[in-house]
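Dear colleagues,

I hope this message finds you well. In preparation for our joint manuscript, I am sending the Molybdenum-pterin binding domain-containing protein (Bosea thiooxidans) sequence together with its predicted structure, so that both groups work from identical material. I would be grateful if you could confirm receipt.
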Amino acid sequence: MKISARNQLKGRIVEITKGATTAHVRIDIGGAIVTSSITNAAVDDLKLAVGKEAYAVVKASDVMIAID
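The corresponding structure tokens are as follows:
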């Protein structure tokens, strides 16, 4: 599969926490943890599991910076 998003971060799933409808999937990207919120159905469809390799794909139109 090819995808247009250029920010593809390969890592290993370290935690999956399912809620009522949404799951939080944590991926270790070389020591940094990226967390994604996806549906429970997506977790099941992709057969995601702790220890499995996956990509965090970031597609954003804006990155904002803020300070106090």
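For the figure legend, we might mention the following. The beta strands are 7-18, 22-29, 32-39, 53-58. The domain at 7-58 is CATH 2.40.50.100 (OB fold (Dihydrolipoamide Acetyltransferase, E2P)).

With kind regards,
E.M.
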